[in-house]
Specification:
Blueprint lengths: L10 H4 L1 H4 L16 E7 L4 H11 L11 H5 E6 L12 H10 L20 H7 L3 E9 L3 H7 L8 H10 L4 E5 L6 H9 L3 E3 L13 E4 L16 H13 L6 E7 L1 H7 L3 H24 L3 E6 L3 E2 L3 E2 L19 H6 L7 H9 L5 H14 L6 H15 L1 E2 L5 E2 L3 E7 L7 E4 H11 L6 H18 L1
Parallel strand pairs: 1-7, 1-8, 2-14, 3-4, 3-7, 4-6, 5-6
Antiparallel strand pairs: 2-13, 8-13, 9-12, 10-11
Helix pairs in contact: 3-12, 5-7, 5-17, 6-18, 10-12, 11-12, 15-16
Family: Belongs to the alkaline phosphatase family.
GO molecular function: alkaline phosphatase activity; metal ion binding
Organism: Paraferrimonas sedimenticola
């Protein structure tokens, strides 16, 4: 079990209102209900990714292959297909709407059904019941997955409109990227609503209570391995738990390992494994939290697979991910070194962390020469990916999404509900069943008015 910079056992002191056994007690809940719900989505994290992570993390010097947090918490699988008109392969928006609201919809839809009518997410339902809500993601906070829990829009690319929703009806804790999507007026509005606005990880310690807007990248966060804190998602998750836990009525938190998907689109095996590692550390943080506070529920899944990852692409029965541990930067960062740098060979060799054969150096040199005309290291990046695929014996079938079922992990109150096969919409409806039954009337009215206004906008 890995614990990050903040010791989770100290959360009892950091957030006493929600968890202490003393004077401040949570609202009483039935045995089948959860006071706190944490939904964790590994975007693009198909079953080959979690399997590959097991071997990536394995100690080759031991006889046993060690289990990972994915193995330890696995309870079932989920189908991912969108509404019929979109076929069998979903995008992140349709999948997130299914996971958030229990409704199949068309690819691209944010919080709408196939008729473009708003549907209510489990996050907004929690808010209606007086629970705090929060986001901790490695993409921009208005990207498809978090947006489906927070907003209603006919297309995921309408980032500005989606962000307006976040200002009109914000979550209590919003942590991720997205500085470029906030206007000064939006920030002023949130400030008037009491939000602390921070842009550096170190400032999280200064935030004593919600609400808070933490934007740590202009768009997304930097790649995990390039970030000042490679374990940035577990850090954001710990602070979100600390802050949201101050509500005696409980909370609902969405955590997304967003960039697993992006690395899959790029067919970058090093990126997939490093982003999955960051996500796995965040899961371990929440797993420990649920052990400390068993009136909580955690559910971990993916929205779809990406890239068609194959562990052993040739007839040789071999997959060797250990070489990936040597890299000290992302492939994009390493590729940029090749541009206008007379000493690129030595610096790239240092970043890769392993020796290259003469043929490998020749392939990189050829790619570097091809990139001189464009001024962009695209061919060099492609050559680096091919090098790692050959070294590890990794294969890919696509640069897009796949239609595979995805793993489901669960722990805590109601975890048994997620055992076995289920459709992704059932994950939402099962989580809804764990919410407190009593709704907050003011919260319900505010959401109804908001939905009505947006219904006009999206039709």
């Amino acid at each position: 079990m890995r614990i990050h910079a903040i010791a989770l056992s100290a959360l009892l002191l950091l957030a006493p209102n929600a968890f202490a056994e003393g004077d401040a007690q949570p609202t009483p809940i039935a045995a089948a209900q959860a006071n706190n719900i944490i939904i964790m989505i590994g975007d693009g994290m198909g079953p080959a990714v979690t399997t590959g992570y097991r071997y990536f993390q394995d100690n080759p010097d031991s006889e046993e292959i060690e289990e990972t947090v994915f193995d330890r918490l696995l309870v079932g699988m989920a189908s991912t297909y969108p509404a019929h008109q979109s076929g069998y392969v979903t995008d992140s928006a349709a999948a997130a709407t299914a996971l958030a609201a229990g409704v199949k919809t068309y690819n691209g839809a944010i919080g709408l059904d196939s008729d473009k009518q708003p549907v209510t997410s489990v996050m907004r339902m929690a808010q209606q019941r007086g629970m705090s809500i929060g986001l901790a993601v490695t993409s921009q906070i208005n990207h498809a997955t978090p947006a489906a829990y927070m907003a209603h829009n006919e297309h995921r690319r309408n980032y500005a409109e989606i962000m307006e929703t976040y200002v009109e009806s914000p979550a209590d804790v919003m942590l991720g990227g997205g500085r470029n999507y906030f206007t000064p007026g939006m920030l002023a509005t949130l400030k008037n609503k009491g939000f602390a606005h921070i842009t550096e990880y170190s400032k999280l310690d200064d935030v004593a209570s919600p609400p808070v807007l933490g934007l740590f990248g202009d768009v997304s966060l930097p790649r995990s391995i390039d970030d000042t804190n490679p374990e940035r998602l577990s850090l954001l998750t710990e602070h979100a738990l600390r802050l949201l836990g101050q509500n005696p009525n409980g909370f609902l938190l969405l955590v997304e390992g967003s960039q697993i998907d992006w690395a899959g689109h790029a067919r970058d095996i090093h990126g997939v494994m490093s982003e999955t590692k960051d996500f796995a550390y965040a899961i371990e943080v929440v797993e420990q939290f649920v052990r400390l506070y068993p009136n909580s529920t955690m559910v971990v899944t993916a929205d779809h697979g990406t890239g068609g990852l194959t562990l052993a692409k040739s007839r040789e029965y071999l997959w060797q991910p250990q070489v990936l541990h040597n890299l000290t930067a992302s492939l994009d960062t390493i590729a940029k070194i090749s541009m206008n740098n007379p000493g690129w060979e030595a610096e790239i060799g240092d970043k890769l962390g392993f020796g290259l054969t003469q043929d490998e150096w020749q392939a990189l040199s050829k790619a570097q020469q091809m990139d001189r005309d464009t001024g962009e290291p695209k061919q060099f990046t492609k050559a680096l990916k091919a090098l790692l695929d050959t070294r590890t014996n990794t294969g890919w079938t696509t640069s897009g999404h796949t239609a595979v079922d995805v793993p489901v992990m669960a722990k805590g109150r109601g975890a048994e509900l997620f055992i076995g096969y289920q459709d992704n919409t059932e994950i939402a409806t099962k989580l809804m069943s764990l919410l407190p039954k009593q709704e907050n009337t003011a919260g319900q009215q505010a959401h109804t008015e908001y939905s009505a206004s947006k219904r006009i906008a999206v039709n």
